[in-house]
Amino acid sequence: MSQLIEMAKAGLAHAKAGTIEQAGEIVRVPASHYYDPEHWQLEMERVFKRLPMMLATSAELPNSGDYKAMNAAGTPVLITRDQDGNIRAFVNSCAHRGAQIMGEGCGHAKRFTCPYHAWSYNHCGDLTHIYTPQDFGELDKSQYGLVPLKAIERCGLIWVLINPRSELDMDLFLAGYDSVLANFHFEDWHYFDSRRVDGPNWKIAYDGYLDFYHLPILHRDTFGADTSNKALYSSWGPHQHVKSPQATEMNLAGMAESEWPMAFLLSGVWTIFPHVSIASFGEGDVRGVLISQLFPGDSPGESYTIQNYLLEKVPDREQAEAAQVQFDFLKHVVEAEDYATGLKQQQSLRTGARDHILFGRNEEGGQRFHQWLKEILNTDDDKLNDLFRSALNKQNLK
User: Fold this and answer.
1) The model's pTM
2) What are the pLDDT tens digits along the chain (398 aa)?
């Protein structure tokens, strides 16, 4: 809470002065980083297969026996809540022949049974049943459970490492960011709906999450005409928050800090490196959040985003209808404006006509994102914990 207050006070000061913090210089990023197959493959191996991904919300798996199956950067993942209420994650692959056990989506199951030969597993990943064992032959079932993946549940969000041999410390990676996101109390929110939106290279899409510079231009016909293009950035390791200091959004005159509404303190866009954006909308009974999970596609020029809409409370009929309208609108904005523009940008960059692209002094979030990406790509496995430990230590000194 104290961090949110300090961030709000800094925003108010900038709003009154009509200023923003600026980066020291303009940064140039090679255009080839958005389309080169070798660079994209390096990102797949050193980012998505080495770092935790936020793959689910607690609201999607509220009860013991609930599960979510999905593809994450080429790895089939099965997430479940066991009988003790703990989150577990596994490679969604049967020990018999490697078939995927559960189809993609959320559900509830007493056990996980492979559709190929009916081998079954419990929620702890133990192999509990072999179909016609007298015919198959003698096998030590304790040696053939599901392959476990590291998973943690924090602040109503679930992170998974898809590399079962990873030694990365997930707390170091989060750099205390989860303690700030905990102010949302997502563990108590209601899951409303999810949708998929296809887009360009994952970095083009992610750049947009951190960019307020485009809001009054690209979105002028939907919501941006009266929106500020100025932004303030806060960071926790590679994770960032971006918010406009626009005075009309910060009219707290006469209110004590202790009375500042939580909806105001949590406004803006919260990004979780390398692939998640959280944006809140509305207040009161219809308050919702759009949690966007961005994944690379099958080639450098493709990505897809799973948009998850959560509501702070279980809605009544009228509130559900309003939420549906809001969700439809948000999907339209991203698909028809952000990603449509990004796909054309992708096509232009792929020609090789431009050597580099630019991130201005007012685009510190994009600068920071690409600097972190560069450092992670250049850091070997045995030094990865040190990289995030250094970021956490700097955060604790602030």
Assistant:
1) 0.95
2) 788 888 888 888 888 888 899 999 999 999 999 999 999 999 999 999 999 999 999 999 999 999 999 999 999 999 999 999 999 999 999 999 999 999 999 999 999 999 999 999 999 999 999 999 999 999 999 999 999 999 999 999 999 999 999 999 999 999 999 999 999 999 999 999 999 999 999 999 999 999 999 999 999 999 888 888 999 999 999 999 999 987 545 567 677 888 888 888 898 999 999 999 999 886 656 789 999 999 999 999 999 999 999 999 999 999 999 999 999 999 999 999 999 999 999 999 999 999 999 999 999 999 999 999 999 999 999 999 999 998 888 776 55
- Can you read off the two tokens belonging to residue 85? 């209420």
CATH H-level, domain 2-51+169-397: superfamily: Naphthalene 1,2-dioxygenase Alpha Subunit; Chain A, domain 1 (3.90.380.10)
- 53-154: CATH superfamily: Rieske [2Fe-2S] iron-sulphur domain (2.102.10.10)
